[in-house]
């Protein structure tokens, strides 16, 4: 998405890393990350959400029932290049921790930025899923990420 008029709405086809896609409204309006909050979720090994905290629900504008059982890519903003998620998956599937900056899409079409850390959950030597913790990113890191992601699309 390239238009930057505040509050403008566009219908966009989002294509996911797994080949699936969906049509959704995008509102070019940022929701500020809440001060002092951590957004936390857990998924199974395929990225299906199994747990969310209240901060996740509040920022995503989805209900807990809409989130649990959904693929985590429900939050994928079309400005996020697929290669960024390929890097995330390559890293965590190899058992390593991943950190990066992500522009997330809310249910209402607005967006928010996070500094995300994704950690593989290993139990008795077996991968059982992933935990993701998000923090408030700095404005300078958001600008750097926007510039980088624009070159990757």
Describe the structure.
- The chain is globular.
- It is built from four helices and seven strands, in the order ββββαααβββα.
- The chain is α+β, with helices and mostly antiparallel strands.
- The protein has helices at residues 54-60, 64-67, 82-93, 139-152; strands at 9-15, 21-27, 39-43, 49-52, 98-105, 111-123, 126-135.
- The termini are close together.
- The model is unreliable at 1-5 (pLDDT under 50).
Which structural traits does this protein have?
alpha+beta; five-stranded antiparallel β-sheet; two-stranded antiparallel ribbon
Largest sheet entry? 5 strands, antiparallel
Query: Within the largest sheet, what's the order of strands?
Result: 4-3-7-6-5
Give the strand content. Answer: 35-45%
Tell me the overall shape. globular
Derived structural class: alpha+beta
Number of helices: 4
The string of secondary-structure elements, in order, is: EEEEHHHEEEH
Q: State the helical fraction.
A: 10-25%
Q: Estimate the mean pLDDT confidence.
A: 90
Terminal Cα span: 10 Å
Low-confidence stretches: 1-5
Based on CA atoms alone, the radius of gyration comes out at 15 Å
Number of strands: 7
Would you summarize the structure shown here?
The strands form two sheets. Strands 4-3-7-6-5 form a five-stranded antiparallel sheet. Strands 1-2 form a two-stranded antiparallel ribbon. The protein has 153 residues and is of the alpha+beta class. The protein has helices spanning 54-60, 64-67, 82-93, 139-152; strands spanning 9-15, 21-27, 39-43, 49-52, 98-105, 111-123, 126-135.
